[in-house]
């Protein structure tokens, strides 16, 4: 019986969620009054009002007396974020393909998603290597090259906070002092390394992508097996990866000058 109640609760929650999405879609074409919303969705006025009021409270809808409900500020913000991510993928894709072709290694594109690195795109390499990453995956910041690149502009206090929070996700033990010193060097170099910290026998080089305001909005990385990523090759790849990241940044109107590298 307890399991049945849990199932019923889950079903009810899903139904409420779907009805909430129906309300948002009904308002998408323009402002609607409560009677119009009720008629369109075939809901009682009390149910329509309850759903719409909850969405107004969370910022997904707005409300103006006599005019009715309209799309809210939070949807506008989310829409802008989704558009930015789509634009970054479109701008970055040719650069990623060229980098993957040149290096023969896997190339990733990612953005900051809360306190994680969200992988938006991936170009597989030509080597017979399995790298545990997929588009849509969220990975730790402090153990991945991509994640480190995304937080290069963050204050050291944030680095240390994430390092402590993600310590159990890191492959080998890394001394906090050593890790902090590496991050300081990465800031100066403008690129970062993953030295088998996230996945055993996998190393990578990453660099940030900046927008017209100079802010880091994404990052790219080249990943391969450690046998193909000795220290010398890591250094050599740094030039290619940062140059590619800079090229994408220029496409996003970041005023990078040739002398910066």
What does this structure look like?
With 261 residues, this protein is of the alpha+beta class. The relative contact order is 0.10. Strand 1 and strand 2 form a beta hairpin. The termini are far apart. The protein has eight helices and eight strands, in the order αααββαβββαααβββα. Helix 4 crosses helix 8. The radius of gyration is 23 Å and the shape is elongated.
Which terms summarize this structure?
261 residues; alpha+beta; six-stranded antiparallel sheet; two-stranded antiparallel ribbon; elongated; disordered N terminus
Summarize the structure.
The protein is an alpha+beta fold. The chain is 50% helix and 19% strand.
Write the layout of secondary structure elements.
Blueprint: H1 2-27, H2 34-41, H3 45-58, E1 61-64, E2 68-71, H4 73-103, E3 106-113, E4 116-123, E5 138-139, H5 145-150, H6 156-165, H7 176-189, E6 192-195, E7 202-210, E8 216-225, H8 231-251
Antiparallel strand pairs: 1-2, 3-4, 3-8, 4-5, 6-7, 7-8
Helix pairs in contact: 1-3, 2-3, 4-8
Shape: elongated
Q: Taking Cα atoms only, what radius of gyration do you get, to the nearest Å? A: 23 Å
Structural class: alpha+beta
In spatial order, strands of the major sheet run 5-4-3-8-7-6
The unreliable regions are: 1-9
Helix content: 40-55%
Report the total helices.
Answer: 8
Task: Work out the number of β strands.
Answer: 8
Average pLDDT number: 86
Distance between the termini: 66 Å
Task: Characterize the main sheet.
Answer: 6 strands, antiparallel
Beta-sheet strand percentage?
A: 15-25%
**Element order: H for helix, E for strand:** HHHEEHEEEHHHEEEH
């Amino acid at each position: 019986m307890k399991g049945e109640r849990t199932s019923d609760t889950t079903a009810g929650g899903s139904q409420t969620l779907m009805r909430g999405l129906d309300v948002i879609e009904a308002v998408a074409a323009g402002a609607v009054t409560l009677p119009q919303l009720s008629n369109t969705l075939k809901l009682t006025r009390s149910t329509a009002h309850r759903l719409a009021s909850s969405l107004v409270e969370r910022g997904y809808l707005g409300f103006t007396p006599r005019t009715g409900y309209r799309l809210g500020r939070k949807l506008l913000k989310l829409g802008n974020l989704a558009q930015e991510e789509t634009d970054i993928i479109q701008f970055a894709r040719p650069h990623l393909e060229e980098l993957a072709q040149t290096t023969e290694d896997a190339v990733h594109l990612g953005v900051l998603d809360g306190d994680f690195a969200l992988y938006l795109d991936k170009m597989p390499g030509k080597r017979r290597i399995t790298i545990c990453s997929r588009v849509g995956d969220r990975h730790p910041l402090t153990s991945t090259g991509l994640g480190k690149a995304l937080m290069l502009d963050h204050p050291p206090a944030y680095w240390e906070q994430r390092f402590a929070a993600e310590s159990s996700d890191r492959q080998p033990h890394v001394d906090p002092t050593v890790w902090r010193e590496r991050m300081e060097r990465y800031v100066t170099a403008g690129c970062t390394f993953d030295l088998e910290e996230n996945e055993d026998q996998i190393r990578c080089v990453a660099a940030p992508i900046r927008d017209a305001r100079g802010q880091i909005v994404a990052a790219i990385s080249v990943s391969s097996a450690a046998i193909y990523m000795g220290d010398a090759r890591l250094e050599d790849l740094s030039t290619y990866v940062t140059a590619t990241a800079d090229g994408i940044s220029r496409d996003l109107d970041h005023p990078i000058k040739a002398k910066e590298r």
